[in-house]
Design brief:
six-stranded antiparallel β-sheet; alpha+beta; 532 residues; Beta-Lactamase
Length: 532
C-alpha cells in the first residue's frame, strides 16, 4: 500500500497501487469521457427492470453520432443476423436485440473506437486485432458447445487482456519496460507488470472493469486460470473465464509457433481444457479456419487492416497449410514403381542449405507469396477471369521462389489434351499456345501424375530412371534440368497444371517451400469453384 496526502485537507488517505495507476491514467483527456460513457451504459442496463427503458438507453447511445451510426451498421450485419427488415433506429435495435446484447455491442464499439484513435503504434493495432479474434473464437466455441450467452463469451474474451491494453494505450513507456524485464530477466508477465506498475496486468484489468460497472461474471472472467485450477471438476469454474483463457492461449500459440509445433501445442491445449471445454481437435481446427473469413467480413465496419496484420498473415498461412494437408500429404502414394522412385529420390535430394534457391530478387519469399494470395483474393471479390487468377499465381511463384520459368497448362475442352497457355521466363513465347500433349495413351511421367493427381518434384531430369519417363515434347521445347509439376484437379477432374523449372539439376524447391506452391494452387481452385 502507498500513502499519499489528500489535496483538500491535511488528512492522508491510503491508495492501492491499482488506484494510484488509475488516477494517473485518468489524467488523460479521453479516458474519463470514455469511462463515464461505459459506466452510464452499464448503469442503465443493470437497473433496467426498475428505472430504465428502451428510450433511456437509446438516448444515452444517441449522444454520440458516430457510435449511433456504427451500431446500426453492426446490428444490420451478418454478425447478428436480425430478421424483419433493416433496422434504422437505435430504439428498434434495443427492442429487437435486448438490453444485454446492445450493452455488449456498444462496449465492443467503444473499445474498438478508442483503440483505433490511438492505433498509430503497430503493437496496439495488433493487440486490437488479436482481441477481436479472441472474441470471435470464444463466441464460436460457446455456440459449438450449445452454451447460452455466446455474446458474453465474445466480450469476456475481448476484454481478457484489458489491463495490458489500458497500459499500452495510456502508458506505452511502461509496457516497454515490462517487455524488457520479461526478455532480460526471464520474468513472467504477471511478475514483470507487478514489478513495474505495482499491480499485475490481470488485477489492473479487473480494477478497471469494476470501475466501469461491468457485471460480476464479466469481471470474474478476467482472472487467469492456472493449470491447477483447470484440473478442478467440470462446472466448478466460470465458463466465461474458461473460454476467455482458452482463446487467449490459442491466440498465443498461433502467434508464436509454426508447423508441427503448432499442432503439438494445439493438441496439448485441447487436453488441458478437456474437463471444461468439450471440443475435439477437429472442431477447434475448424473454428480457427473459419475465423479468418469472419474477421474479413468485419474488417470494413471496424477498420481492421487485414493486409498489414502479422497475426492475420499467420492465419492466412495456416489456412493454406490446412488446405494443402487435405489435398494430399504423401507425394509418392499409389504411383508406379518407377515414378515412386523418382519422387523418393527428388525429395531426399532436397537440401535446405542449397543457396542456389535464394536467387530470387525478392528478399522475402513468404511476403511475395502471401501478397500474391491477397491479390488473388481481392480480385475474386468482383467480376474476374480464372486465367487472370492463374496468372497472378504464376507471377507469385516466379518472383517469390526464383524459378527460371513457370507455365500454366490448361486442359483443352472436349479433347484429351493439355496446352501451355501462358507463363513467365526465357523462351516462354515459343512455348505458350504452342506446346500440347495428350493426357491419355502415352505412358510418361506427366500423364501418370495427372492420372493419379500426384505432384512431381524432379531434381535431375538426366537420371536414367527419370529420363526414360520424360516425353520427347519436353526435351524439344522445354529441356530443363529440374522441375516441379502440380496437377490442378476439382472433384477428381483434371483441369490443368502448374509447371516450374530450374535450368540445371538440383533440388527445384526447398522442403518448406512446397507449401507455398500448394497455397497458390488452392487459391486458384477456390477461384474456379466460385466461378462455377
Amino acid at each position: 500500500m502507498v500513502q499519499i496526502k489528500a489535496n483538500a485537507s491535511n488528512q492522508s488517505q491510503i491508495l492501492s497501487p491499482g488506484e494510484i495507476l488509475l488516477e494517473r491514467i485518468s489524467r488523460n483527456s479521453d479516458f474519463p469521457t470514455f469511462s463515464n460513457y461505459i459506466i452510464e451504459i452499464n448503469r442503465k442496463i443493470s437497473s433496467q427492470e426498475k428505472y430504465s427503458s428502451a428510450s433511456d438507453l437509446s438516448n444515452t447511445i444517441l449522444k454520440d453520432y458516430a457510435l449511433t451510426s456504427t451500431l446500426l451498421k453492426l446490428v444490420n450485419s451478418a454478425y447478428y443476423g436480425t430478421t424483419g427488415g433493416k433496422i434504422t433506429t437505435v430504439t428498434r435495435a434495443v427492442v429487437l436485440l435486448g438490453f444485454e446484447k446492445v450493452r455488449l455491442a456498444i462496449t465492443n464499439l467503444l473499445l474498438f473506437d478508442l483503440m483505433k484513435c490511438k492505433s498509430s503504434v503497430v503493437e496496439l493495432k495488433e493487440a486490437f486485432v488479436k482481441a477481436f479474434w479472441c472474441g470471435l473464437i470464444a463466441k464460436d466455441m460457446a455456440a459449438t458447445m450449445a452454451l447460452e450467452g455466446d455474446e458474453e463469451a465474445f466480450i469476456c474474451a475481448m476484454l481478457h487482456n484489458l489491463g495490458r491494453h489500458i497500459v499500452l494505450l495510456y502508458l506505452p513507456d511502461k509496457c516497454e519496460e515490462i517487455a524488457n524485464l520479461i526478455l532480460e530477466k526471464d520474468f513472467s508477465e504477471a511478475n514483470a507488470s507487478k514489478a513495474i506498475l505495482g499491480i499485475s496486468y490481470e488485477n489492473l484489468g479487473i480494477a478497471v472493469a469494476e470501475q466501469w460497472k461491468f457485471p460480476a461474471q464479466i469481471v470474474n472472467s478476467l482472472e487467469r486460470l492456472s493449470a491447477d485450477k483447470l484440473r478442478k471438476r467440470k462446472g466448478s469454474l466460470n465458463i466465461l473465464g474458461v473460454l476467455s483463457n482458452y482463446s487467449d492461449e490459442l491466440c498465443q500459440i498461433i502467434n508464436s509457433t509454426e508447423g508441427k509445433k503448432t499442432k503439438l501445442s494445439l493438441s496439448a491445449l485441447v487436453k488441458q481444457y478437456a474437463r471444461h471445454v468439450s471440443l475435439t481437435p477437429q472442431q477447434l481446427t475448424l473454428l480457427i479456419d473459419d475465423s479468418l473469413e469472419k474477421v474479413r467480413k468485419h474488417a470494413d465496419l471496424l477498420n481492421i487492416d487485414v493486409e498489414n496484420s502479422q497475426f492475420l498473415k499467420r492465419l492466412i498461412v495456416r489456412e493454406q497449410e490446412q488446405q494443402s494437408d487435405r489435398s494430399g500429404r504423401n507425394l509418392d502414394n499409389d504411383l508406379d514403381l518407377e515414378v515412386s522412385k523418382v519422387l523418393v529420390d527428388s525429395l531426399s535430394g532436397l537440401d535446405a542449405s542449397d543457396m542456389r534457391l535464394n536467387e530470387s530478387p525478392e528478399a522475402n519469399s513468404v511476403e511475395v507469396i502471401l501478397s500474391g494470395i491477397q491479390d488473388m483474393s481481392a480480385a475474386m471479390v468482383g467480376e474476374y477471369k480464372v486465367n487472370d487468377i492463374a496468372l497472378m499465381a504464376l507471377e507469385s511463384m516466379y518472383r517469390g521462389l526464383g524459378f527460371n520459368r513457370v507455365i500454366f497448362f490448361a486442359r483443352i475442352r472436349d479433347k484429351e489434351q493439355m496446352e501451355a497457355r501462358f507463363g513467365f521466363g526465357p523462351g516462354i513465347e515459343r512455348i505458350a499456345n504452342q506446346v500440347r500433349f495428350k493426357i491419355k495413351g502415352a505412358r510418361n511421367i506427366f500423364n501418370l501424375a495427372l492420372a493419379r493427381q500426384k505432384d512431381l518434384l524432379i531434381a535431375n531430369t538426366d537420371e536414367q530412371h527419370v529420363h526414360e519417363l520424360i516425353p520427347e515434347w519436353f526435351w524439344e521445347r522445354i529441356n530443363a534440368g529440374a522441375f516441379v509439376f502440380l496437377p490442378i484437379s476439382l472433384e477428381k477432374n483434371c483441369l490443368g497444371a502448374f509447371y516450374a523449372d530450374r535450368e540445371s539439376a538440383g533440388p527445384p524447391i526447398q522442403p518448406e517451400q512446397y507449401k507455398f506452391l500448394t497455397m497458390l494452387r488452392n487459391q486458384l481452385l477456390l477461384a474456379i469453384k466460385y466461378r462455377k
